[in-house]
């Protein structure tokens, strides 16, 4: 049976980078109200980027939800950064701040020249015994292991160990956490480096991860004795962040580059009580 369709604005943005094809790609889609969860998951799967952000206007600000190609997630840094760029560069040019209502509470993003600064809740990592099967999954034994309340954090000996890591992605998917962050002290340019693997969420390796740095920032701040950190995520695409601890919050700063702007066609449920654009 033929189904009616409607067009929705879509933007694809590379976040945490100043170069096209770097950083972490996100899709941002504007709706009048959120469609049902099943359709949002289908759209995210069709977009086939690490995260799709769905924006709904709410007074002067917006409601925001994030989906990987397989699941909804409670927090996503790079897609929030991309959403802020869409709001302040396309939907409301000249605007310099926006607050998103999300599953992680209100998230405020400010524009600072050609960069954006997000304000996220800190994830305080705690040291834990080496989890069973983590060494086997990573192919290397961590120097230290932590839990940030969401992911395992595996501290490796040096930056090269992070860059050259070739983990068993299927084994990581079987762990009892949604993802694993690997990290090490950086070089003269970077205070810390990291990578993030989350196959259980449909993302074998996430190119640049804001949420992971909510836990990395307090960890490296305590060890390096500084509240502002220059961070690099050493995925094949690579991404740069500046992290600042501000009480129980962390500021994550980065740039965005627009890659695509257009429309997507999605089906309309004629019997639905609510519509979406």
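Q: What amino acid sequence fits the structure above?
A:
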């Amino acid at each position: 049976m033929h189904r009616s369709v409607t067009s929705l604005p879509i933007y694809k943005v590379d976040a945490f980078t100043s170069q096209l094809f770097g950083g972490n790609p996100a899709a941002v889609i504007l709706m009048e109200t959120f469609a049902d969860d099943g359709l949002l998951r289908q759209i995210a799967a069709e977009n086939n980027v690490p995260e799709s952000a769905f924006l709904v206007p709410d007074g002067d600000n917006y409601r925001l939800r994030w989906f990987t190609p397989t699941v909804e997630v409670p927090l996503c840094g790079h897609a929030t950064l991309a959403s802020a760029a869409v709001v302040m560069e396309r939907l409301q040019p000249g605007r310099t701040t926006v607050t998103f209502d999300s599953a992680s509470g209100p998230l405020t993003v400010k524009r600072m020249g050609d960069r954006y600064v997000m304000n996220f809740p800190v994830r305080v990592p705690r040291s834990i015994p080496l989890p069973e099967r983590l060494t086997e999954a990573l192919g290397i034994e961590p120097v230290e292991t932590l839990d940030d309340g969401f992911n395992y954090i595996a501290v490796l000996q040096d930056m090269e160990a992070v860059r050259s890591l070739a983990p068993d992605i299927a084994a990581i998917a079987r762990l009892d956490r949604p993802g694993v962050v690997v990290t090490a002290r950086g070089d003269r340019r970077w205070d810390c480096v990291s990578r993030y693997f989350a196959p259980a969420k449909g993302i074998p390796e996430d190119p640049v991860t804001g949420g992971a740095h909510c836990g990395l920032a307090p960890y490296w701040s305590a060890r390096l004795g500084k509240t502002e950190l220059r961070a690099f995520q050493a995925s094949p695409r690579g991404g740069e962040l500046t992290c600042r601890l501000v009480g129980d919050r962390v500021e994550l700063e980065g740039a965005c580059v627009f890659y695509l702007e257009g429309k997507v066609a999605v089906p309309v449920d004629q019997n639905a009580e609510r519509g979406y654009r």
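Q: And what stands out in the fold?
A: The first helix runs from residue 37 to 47.
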